[in-house]
Amino acid sequence: MQACFCFHGDLSFxxxxxxxxxxxxxxxxxxxxxxxxxxEAFGPPHTEIGDIVCNGxxxxxxxxxxxxxxxxxxxxxxxxxxTRPSFLRPVPLPALAFLADGSVGRLARLLRMAGxxxxxxxxxxxxxxxxxVIREPRVLLSRNLDLLKRKQxxxxxxxxxxxxxAQLREVLALFGITELAQALSRCLDCNAPLEPVEKTRILHRxxxxxxxxxxxxxxxxxxxxxxxxxxHVDGMRRxxxx
Length: 242
Ligand SMILES: [Zn+2]
Known about the structure:
By secondary structure, the protein is α/β, with parallel strands linked by helices. The protein folds into 3 domains: about 1-75, Ubiquitin-like (UB roll) (Roll), CATH 3.10.20; about 100-175; about 195-240, no CATH class. Helices cover about 25% and strands about 20% of the residues. It is built from 8 helices and 12 strands. The chain has helices at about 35-40, 105-115, 125-135, 145-150, 165-175, 200, 210-215, 230-240; strands at about 1-5, 25-30, 50-55, 55-60, 70-75, 100, 120, 140, 155-160, 195, 215-220, 225-230. A 5-stranded mixed sheet has the order 2-1-5-3-4, with no helix packed on it. A 4-stranded parallel sheet has the order 7-6-8-9, with helices on both faces. Helix 2 crosses helix 5. The longest helix is centred in the C-terminal third of the chain and has 11 residues, at about 165-175. The protein is elongated, with a radius of gyration of 21 Å. It starts with a strand and ends with a helix. The model has no long low-confidence stretch (mean pLDDT about 95). Zinc ion binds near residues 192, 220 and 222. Zinc ion binds near residues 189, 190, 220 and 223.
């Protein structure tokens, strides 16, 4: 006896090459498996799944796959509001916040530049990242599918785009973000919120041109780095939303 799997939307992008062009995957059931394990054996991490329908009714990741069942797998769709409970993820996040691994370091800095709370350190290993998402639930961003398949990861995104800016665009589109209201509110190096600082207090640390052309400054209380609204934020806005 067999079970039948149909991956919808852009999930086919994540299927292993041998399955990518198959609309309906029909497999003999040789061993007991949950639908989470079955989905991930085909390629896509569970983090990418928005709905699982078995013989016409929704089921969760622990559902045991049995012969004769037909599964329709649907991707998470935009705009994804992670602060609302859903059937597959009944405990929502308190707010949209990210954790990035070493495969998307450039994206992590761009997200901070755009003002999003994004934890990242280039030396963090898988065990460090999993410890963090357990203690402090966040959306894990990665290109490492095996990491996203770990059961500790509830919210995640397998980043498809190749370059940092395209990846930022991908994340903003997924979460339905159309403006950068919080740009330049976080330190690019340590993710700490920035605070306004009087120009007179930091005057001695500014380059002559910065001193002449800028009036509003912010300071990272954690690492003491100074920020001002330079052209990079405007440039990023133009590239993203033009
Ligand atoms: Zn800092």
